[in-house]
Structure formats: C-alpha cells, structure tokens
Amino acid sequence: MKKSLQIGGAFVGLIVGAGFASGQEIMQYFTSFGIMGIVGGIVATIAFAFLGMTLAQLGSKLQTASHKGVIYYIGGRYIGAVLDFLITFFLFGVAVVMFAGAGSTFNQMFGISPMVGSIIMVALTIGTLLLNLKNILNLIAIITPYLMVVIFIILIYSLFTMDISISEANTIAQNQASAASNWFMGALLYVSYNIAAGAALLIVMGGTERNSKVAGVGGILGGVMLGVLIILINLTMFVKLDVVDGVDMPTLELAKQIHPTVGVLMAIALLGMMYNTAVGMFYAFTVRFVAPDHKVFKPTVVVVGLVGFIASLVGFTTLVGKVYSTMGYLGFALIIAIVIAWIRRDKKEVVS
Q: Is 350 among the domain residues?
C-alpha cells in the first residue's frame, strides 16, 4: 500500500501544477456550469481513476523507463509514432508553461521580476533532476498532503462565510468564461489535457513497480485524490463566486480573504505545484531520449532546462492559450487508444 500511495501521490503532484495552479482551470471547466459542475467533477474522478489505473498497470507490465514502449504498445507502429511525437512535444511545452507561471507568481506575490522567478524555478528543476528517480518521486509526492490541507482550510472557511444563495451563485456562474459548451464536455476536456500532460510520467512511475496490481491501485488512488481536489476546489469557488468573480487566481484570492499568512501559504502551494509539474514533465521528456543511468543524462538535463527557460520568455498567458487548447484534443486521441488497449488486452510486442 505504501508504494501505491507513493505512485498515487506523485500522480496528483504531477497533475496539480498544470490543472489546479491558479484555480482558473477549475473555474472554466467546472464552476462556470454551476451545480452541474459538481456532477462534472464526479465524471472527471471516474475517468482519472480508470485512466490512472490503466496507464500505471501498463507501465508495470512492460517495465519501461520511458513512455515510448507503452505508447507504441497501445497505438501500434504508426499511430504510436504520432502519439509519441505529440506527447513528447507537450511534455516540454507544459514544463515551459510552468517556468513562465512561476515567474508570474513570484512577480504577483513578492514583486520579483518574472525572469528572476523563472530562473529560480529552472534552477530548482535542474537540481532535482540530477537526483535519482526514487528521490524525484518522494519530492513530488510531498506537496500533495500539504495542498489538500490548505484547500480544506479554505473550503471550511468559505462554507461558513458564504454570503450568497445557491441560486445566486448559479446566476453568477453563468457569467463566467467557460472552456466548453456544456458541463460534460468540460469534464472530458479537462481530463483530456491533464492525461496528455501526465500520461508519460505515470507510465514511468508504473514501471518502477513490478506488481501491476500495486501500480494499478496507485493509479486509482491518484485519480480519486484528483477528483476530490476538483470537487473541493469547485465547491469552494462556487459558494464564493461573489468574491472570485473576474479574478485571475481564484484560489489565491480566497486564501488571502482568510488571512495574509494563508495567502502566503497558498502562494507557496502554487509554486510547489508548478515545481512538481516542471520536474515531472522534464524528467519524462529527457528519459524519452536518454536513459537516466547514461553518462550524458545529467548534461542533457542542463541543456534542456536552459532551452526551456528561453522558451518560457514568450509569456505565461500566451503559452497557456496555445499549449493547453491543443493538448485537449491530443488527449482525446490518447484516451481512445488507452481504452482500446484496455478492452483488447492484446499481446503486441513492445517496440524498443
């Protein structure tokens, strides 16, 4: 169970940076649909648990150190090649978004130049990747319980200080920007782009456990924890829509409402989530090309990190708009391939 919890915690730690960092993602994919957004959160929980289980089990079964083997296994030679290229590209893209996001967060909360904030995050990411995988998994998993505690505190406060009725909250929700045409599509798109971002490292994490049942339980636990976070954050923002209406970073605004110290704690959580995601994405991206025990792995990490920093200078908002919107549709193709592989349970040989 300890190993399952580690895999599940790392899965959550990886996803939260890309999908929870500002609260704006939950707002657009769930809260903007009012009460039905909570139903969407339940749908997302089930999807995350199933996909997490399947990917972790495939990684364990194939004992791969890179996502390449599993992607070719579920997609075949031709579709697998396309999925492999796209996932590899987005691993790099999401990490770059995290670098830019860290720069923006440092600037907003502490008045530090965005470039300096990005440099700090790049340095931390490179330093972490020079450690071994076991240490990386431990570091990534640490932030999960901390985040859950901070979110729970904000939720309790929000529920006890709610100043609007459910019907009023529903009315305000209808005026929020939505990322999809309805609550069901919003839930699917949210799961889609997050799985596109997290599939590679989840496969690698599954590959560290030889018992596929243990790996699968880890994937399920991670999916359930993600779902609980979605529902909690969604509910928190829903009952406080009068406060977060039109705010760029809703979770941070709610934390500051409680006390400035809680705001600082939330800012630390946001940076921790971005750090988790940056580390996970860059590790999965790098091991796609260089084995972690190869002598050129560490120099490659440094070079990739520097290239990522340069790319992050494009800007956080621009990167989010371009990368995430495309990833949602990529994720659908990947999800379909995963479901087909789970149904068929075929015996294809892994392309090494």
A: no
Q: What is the dihedral of CA 45, 46, 47, 48, to 10 degrees?
A: 50
Three-class HEC string of 238-283: HHCHHHHCCCCCHHHHHHHHHCHHHHHHHHHHHHHHHHHHHHHHHH
Find the angle CA(26)-CA(51)-CA(189) to the nearest 5 degrees.
Answer: 35
| CA gap 264, 246 in Å, rounded | 21
Q: Among all chains, which residue has been given the structure tokens 């599993």?
A: 70
CA angle 19, 173, 321 (to 5 degrees): 35
CATH number of the domain that residue 310 is part of: 1.20.1740.10
Which residue, among 146, 106, 207, has the nearest Cα to 13 in the 3D structure?
146
Is 121 inside a domain boundary? yes
pLDDT tens-digit readout, 79-138: 888 888 888 888 888 888 889 888 887 887 778 888 999 999 999 899 888 876 556 656
203 occurs within a structural domain: yes
Q: Let me know: does 109 contact 332? Beta carbons within 8 Å.
A: no
